[in-house]
Amino acid sequence: MISQVTGQMLKQMLINASANIENHKQELNDLNVFPVPDGDTGTNMSLTIGAGEKALESLNPQSVGEAAEASAKALLRGARGNSGVILSLLFRGFSKRLKDLDTCDATSFALAMATGVDSAYKAVMKPAEGTMLTVSRVSAGSAVSAAESTEDIEAVLEQAIEAGRTALAETMYQNPVLEKAGVIDAGGKGYIYMLEGMLKGLRGEVVEKLETDESSRSGDKADFAQFAEEDITFTYCTEFMIEVQSDKDVALLKTFLDARGDSVVVVDDDSVIKVHVHTDEPGNALTEGLTYGQLISIKIENMREQLAEAAGASGPGNSAGEPEEMKDFAIVTVCVGAGIESVFSDLGADRIITGGQTMNPSTQDILEQINSAPSEVVFVLPNNKNIIMAAQQCVNLTEKSVVVVPTRSIPQGVSAMLSLGVENDVEGMGDTMAKAAKLVRTALVTKAARDSVFDDMEIKKDEYLALVEDHLTANSESEAEVFDAVAKKLGEREMEFVTIFTGEDAVESETEVLAAKLKEAAPEAEVAVIFGGQPVYQYIISAE
Description:
This protein is of the alpha/beta class. Helices cover 46% and strands 18% of the residues.
């Protein structure tokens, strides 16, 4: 019988938990029902708990409180994706309960599990059943009940695992998406693997990590040195804002700019027009803008000069040299793809974190950029639904004032940045960006990474997929059929501006077909094509 857990024992239990999740990472990834890789559950849980393992490796904990606190802090900063954030919250509550204890008995251990569950439920805005939260709650409840009748921590963990497995099997029927796909919840299964690893550590066993040939992509950065000056078609990145004083059709301004440059974005909110264009004729662009009203802000930058500087730097604001001038506010954004990164940089992003669909950055990754940003007020644009929770954890980890704008896609992030005006009220700016993000619709074209059943559609690996606002709109072996479905769906609502961001696998002839179909669906809309360079999605489409 094991009646007490020491700091050293808890350390081995948590290291085992990390190894066990790592060994089953791909299995957990394969349980994901979403047909597109999205920083899959197994990868995010493994990277998150792996941060805790690294913190413990060099630690010689003298108490369970010390071991729990060290791992909880590391998990919080290393959390990636929603599953990783929830895992970190479970450990945060677990740590709080054990904080002042040298050793813990069965009751303390079980109550610590329950406190972790409470912390996770309180932090999740809309907790859903049939998820990792459900499995952890049932497991912790069983542990508390078992501890009332036994002092054996091994028996308590065994009962927690048994109850958790039962709850895990039920997740298939609690979540309609899982039931249609015929799978259990990936996060819940990851939680069981964690407990199983901990139980082996309690017994003095060591879980060895299996050999893997997967390499981490978390350090990927855009290499500006590979771009030549001749790759820049137009020299000047030109941005200006117009206080509207004319009834002149704004669509005419976009047509004017399209004929004289690229990367054209024009946003009109009735009282203000915000313009972004790459052109060799910034003076002509400004002169045309004056026909709509008074210019209230202007920014013109020579992109050829910027390229020369960026070739020796890692991103906006990260080059060596003179300290950056402090600003009223700064923007930190997450995106991937050289073209998309360039768009956000042109729009004024102070820090760009390379990441997104298959590379969810950790809370620490985001926090570092927040702390290095040249302002005490920082707005964070996650641009992916699986990164929002990790970004929100940063709010309480820095002395800066941080506002997370819950942007769920690249088009929402671009729209949010374009909405920024001259007001300096932090709350007002956050609300403005959030509202602007909701006005744009996002469509995605990609290929299925796995067989799946999603949104009542049976999907086969390598089929073309179209998703509009996260809902599967079409799947087919024919890309043309998917293009038709996207155009039809977006054409159900009026569109003034459509922007197509082309991915690294996009084919020019197919891009032309897509643009033509969108133009046919919305004849009055301005359709623009911008090189995005993003992985996973051949096309990201913004409609507003």
